[in-house]
Amino acid sequence: MPTIVVDVMPKAELLDPAGKAVAGALHRLGDTAFSGVRIGKRFELTVDGEVTDAVLARARELASEMLSNSVIEDVIAVSVDE
Amino acid sequence: MSTPVVDSVSNAAATPGKEQPYEALGLKPDEYARIRELLGRRPTSGELAMYSVMWSEHCSYKSSKVHLRQFGQKVSPEMTKNLMVGMGENAGVVDIGEGWAVTFKIESHNHPSYIEPFQGAATGVGGIVRDIISMGARPVAVMDALRFGALGDPDTARVVHGVVGGISFYGNCLGLPNIGGETRFDPVYQANPLVNALAVGVLRHEDLHLANARGVGNKVVLFGARTGGDGIGGASILASDTFSEGGPTKRPAVQVGDPFAEKVLIECCLELFAGGLVEGIQDLGAAGISCATSELASNGDGGMRISLDEVLLRDPTLTAEEILMSESQERMMAIVQPSKLEGFLAVTKKWDVETSVLGEVTDTGRLVIDWRGETIVDVDPRTVAVDGPVYERPVAYPAWLDQMQENSAATLPRPADGAGLRKDLLHLVNSANIADTSWVTSQYDKYVLGNTALSYPDDGGMVRVDERSGLGFALATDANGRYCYLDPYAGAQLALAEAYRNVAVTGATPVAVSDCLNFGSPENPEVMWQFSRAVEGLADGCLALGIPVTGGNVSFYNQTGDVPIHPTPVVAVLGTIDDVGRRVPSGWQDAGDNLYLLGATALELDGSAWAGVVHGHLGGRPPAVDLGREKALAGLLAAGAHEGLFNAAHDLSDGGLGVALVEGCLRFGVGARIFLDELLERDGIDLATALFSETGGRAIVAVPREEDVKFTRLCEGRGYPVLRIGVTDAGPASGAALDVQGAFSIPLDELGAAHRAPLREAFGA
Amino acid sequence: MRIGVVTFPGSLDDRDAQRAVRLAGGEPVPLWHGSHDLEGVDAIVLPGGFSYGDYLRCGAIAARSPIMSEVIDAANAGLPVLGICNGFQILVEAHLLPGGLIRNDHGSFVCRDQVLRVENASTAWTNGFAEGQEITIPLKNGEGGFIASAEDLKRLEGEGLVAFRYVGVNPNGSLDDIAGLTNPRGNVVGLMPHPEHASEPGFGPDTPAAMRSGVDGLTFFTSVLAHRMAAA
Predict the structure, then answer these.
(1) What percentage of chain C has pLDDT greater than the value 70?
(2) Residues of B in contact with A13 (CB under 8 A)
(3) Is the pLDDT at B51 greater than 60, yes or no?
(4) Which of B383, B503, B534, C228 has the most CB atoms in a 10 Å sphere around its CB?
């Protein structure tokens, strides 16, 4: 079945405590190749049937209205994974 | 992207005619003119940023100051006896004996909690906890006073889930027990919830720290989280002004909390204090670096010079104005002697807390801030932090109030038979504001730190301070917006009286007050009248009770659409108890205890829960206030608790005796048989009045039979009205019940189900 | 007997665990996450809290901290180790106990007085209980749902490695009502509820006898003292 993938990230300007904690751990463990970590969310919407333009539009709508909180998060991508 | 133009002091002097967006920053034309006059030139954009945030209502108290002065004026020696730090510091500090002190404060985070309920409430907890740390104290507990819109409104669920989730997330992760508070629902808060967070800390007397920058040459140190673009929606106006095209996008107005960073910051600060490494300290909250630098300098030797280039940034594109206004959380500013800087940095390094030295204390009387080789701020810090505008706003007696007060609930039909009384009582128990709030409180850790002696659903929270002696404190918060709407002076005093009584029933002695005054717009003269009357009532009330207001917060502009909220002065009362082992819970623990009603009951149903729930009525005048009576009752309760005469003590408030009896039964699942004939006769009232009136100065106590004589003698000695109204009762094998003889009997299972249902049905199991 | 209590950044119930050790008659020894020194302690408690904010997976970062390499070696050599709540999560992340702990099935943090059944009373930390005994211990977590593969579950049940089970209410959706586990040797025990919060009269859960009088948790600490005493 086709899947629509929605990626949501915390807004770039806002603090991402989770990413910060993981970046700190990497640093303590001696990994110096990575200067930062940001942690977002990935949603996989399984589509019952074909991914029509209407279904995709609805997914975009859900992504911005429900799956993400526009005050603190951005929808980075809404893509179809056949 | 082009390089930002630095609006330096010399540039400002050279370009006096440059237009500045002061109005978009919330400054009035006369305020802007005053700034120009103070500086003798136009402000730089950095200075404008500082003045605009520090002269905002939130930071400057410009509309409330003239009224709040009463708290400092209406004081007696009794009130200042144990007060180590009063109003004006980050939080008040009270001596509780044995070398211990307690510091506590309640503060609003209403508007952020509507925009982003989860982060708004979370950072509300974080902010008030930092106020407590900055006094030199270890935070030991939190509480919340919450007001939401109507229980059935779908948007209420959104806000409730967010706010409760945010408090739970932040407070639990911080390791602070949540020991009580209140949760209320009313349509007046629909688009303007109230999130008032309280934190309390303990310290040894010698550990007291204040927010001042003394000692020329001492270092100004910023530590904790990095500074980012959080909560500076307003500053982006300046940013777009100083950037040429292609500048930053509008910055978000919210902040994101990191409780882990704050927990580490707490432990780090306590280790710094213990090592004697800090001269003065201030948390960064609203107005961030602008506030911390100007307040520290104002309270100290008056001068400070710092470089903004030294501020560790999360986002290198921030402009100077944004750095000055950023409300990034989990940051502190300390004043450190140069010789102790190494020790200071060793402690922050141990805790992985990033630290940078921004500058030092001077004796110039000027706060000077440099950025990229230019001086961008050069001001007298007092003009920023202390001598802001003060307004004597017009007040007007509300046109609608007389008519409202004439509409008494005394004329509403009151049930006379058992079936009708039973129905009304169940209706109350099943209503939004009397219902069990454990859906909320079970999301909070009440056990952490191992010192919680009482918590929800007892009337007050209680925490042990000294593990050897058992010395501790109790805390309760209360406010009744309905009473305040009918009469803000009396309403504020009733909130004070109720919080005072809630502390007294636990066995503690009330000693101090913190308040969070939530009102509509100060530019509305009727709201300003409500505010002035409430403050007056509170100040007079504190004087009468002999307990000082040690600090608090004012929140204006709370309204849903154009309609202001009910005036909601939330009052927190702190009490002390020499051994928390003598605490008294709010419900009966054993069968066979005698139940006594302390205090007399009058026909006072105006503004009551009964009138609101059963009849949808709000009118008349709230119950009479008699603070002498409250003081006498508290004295009696403390004496009885000290002698161990009570197995339970419960305050009578919303829903009157009927609801108090239900709560007393449900606390430990022990029933009661109640006989009210003598009460009806003595007070000349009917059964509905006896059960639902909200007359003040009343409590029920459960006294074990062997203490009966002692208790009766205690009451006689103090001349306080007392009447035996029943006995606690395990009930038949089929289960305990609340049995009001000659009227009705309700099984506790039925009461419990009705009590639990409203919040669980609205928000999920 | 000296019992170490490890403090990680974000540990919250470390002082409470120290108090419980003291109340049981042991000597609490604070241990620091960044150290490699176990200071010769006779047993170790990994306390509750939100180590490193628990932002990644609960306990994931703490399980990789310096002191844990020593704790893992000592546990494999038979030293008694108790993981409480976040400590349990750390033990699981360190692979000293199997399975995983995920978000509570109802999605919220929950704090309640929880009845547990002691399923295995022969471990270093439970020998003072009787098998099948019901005890009341406060529970407070947001991510306490125990999960494991069908294969692991079968092994846990078959080998008697389930140490505690929730009774009455399953507060977080844990499979098979599992509240706590032991390793086969019985020296490493982890559970979500907090025995240290049921160790001091007046500050524990309510009991039918009196409010806040529950001290069932104290037996964890007296058990390990007895265990070490017997070994000495």
Answers:
(1) 100
(2) 228-230, 251-252, 315
(3) yes
(4) B503
Distance from CA of A19 to the nearest CA of C (A): 8
Question: How far B741 CA lies from chain C's nearest CA (Å)?
Answer: 27
Q: Give the predicted TM-score (pTM) of the model.
A: 0.93
B617 is annotated as an active-site residue: no
Half-sphere exposure of A23 (CA within 13 A, CB side): 13
A31/chain B closest Cα distance in angstroms: 17
List of chains touching C (3+ CB pairs within 8 A): A, B
Q: How far apart are the first and last CA of chain A?
A: 7
Q: What is the pLDDT of residues B242-300, one digit of tens each?
A: 333 333 445 567 788 899 999 999 999 999 999 999 999 999 988 899 999 999 998 88
Helix/strand/coil (H/E/C) assignment for every residue in B56-93: CHHHHCCCCHHHHHHHHHCCCHHHHCCEEECCCCCCEE
CA distance A32 to A30: 6
Shortest CA distance from A17: residue in chain C: C55
For residue C139, which residues of chain B lie inside 8 Å, CB to CB?
A: none
Mutation site for C-interface testing, chosen from B447, B467, B590 by largest number of C Cβ within 10 Å: B447
Token duo for residue B296: 């520290």
b/e sequence B17-53, b meaning 16+ C-beta within 10 Å: eeebebeebebeeebbebbeebbebbbbbbbbbbbbb
Report how many domains make up chain A: 1
Residue of B nearest to C201 (CA): B581
Task: Report chain B residues whose CB lies below 8 A from the CB of C10.
Answer: 173, 260, 263-264
Residues of chain C found within 8 Å of residue A25, distances taken between Cβ atoms? 52, 56, 61, 64
Q: 3-state DSSP call for residue A76?
A: strand
- pLDDT for B210 equals 78
Q: Which domain holds residue A59?
A: 3-81
All structural domains of chain B, each given as residue ranges with its CATH number in brackets, are 9-63+210-385 (3.90.650.10)
pLDDT at residue B245, as a whole number: 38
Q: Does domain C2-231 match CATH 3.40.50.880?
A: yes
Preceding peptide of A2 cis, ω within 30°: no
Question: What percent of chain B has pLDDT above 70?
Answer: 96
Domain positions in chain C: 2-231
Amino acid identity for residue C99 in this structure: G
User: Other CB atoms closer than 10 Å to residue B678's CB: what's the count?
Assistant: 12
From B260, B464, B668, residue closest to C53, measured CB to CB: B260
User: What is chain B's Cα-based Rg?
Assistant: 27
Q: In the predicted model, what is the mean pLDDT of residues C198-211?
A: 93
Give the tens place of pLDDT for each residue, C11-61. Answer: 999 999 999 999 999 999 999 999 999 999 999 999 999 999 988 889 999
Q: Mind telling me the catalytic residues of C?
A: 85, 194, 196
B642 is catalytic: no
Q: With H, G, I as helix, E, B as strand and everything else as coil, classify residue C179.
A: strand
**Helix/strand number for chain A, H first, E second:** 2, 3
Verify whether the Cβ–Cβ distance C55 to A24 is below 8 Å. no
The answer to whether the CB atoms of C56 and A21 lie below 8 A apart is: yes
pLDDT for position B555: 93
Nearest to C203 among B169, B175, B450 (CB): B450
Residue in C closest to B261 by C-alpha: C53
Burial class (CB in 10 A: 0-12, 13-18, 19+), B561: exposed
Which range, of A28-42, B611-625, C45-59, C169-183, averages the lowest pLDDT?
A28-42
How close A82 comes to chain B (CA, Å)? 34
pLDDT per residue as tens digits for the range B637-675: 999 999 999 999 999 999 999 999 999 999 999 999 999
A55: CATH? 3.30.1280.10
Residue B151 predicted with pLDDT over 60: yes
The residue of chain B nearest to residue C138, with distances taken between CA atoms, is B447
From the list B172, B175, B102, B171, the residue with the least C-alpha distance to B137 is: B102
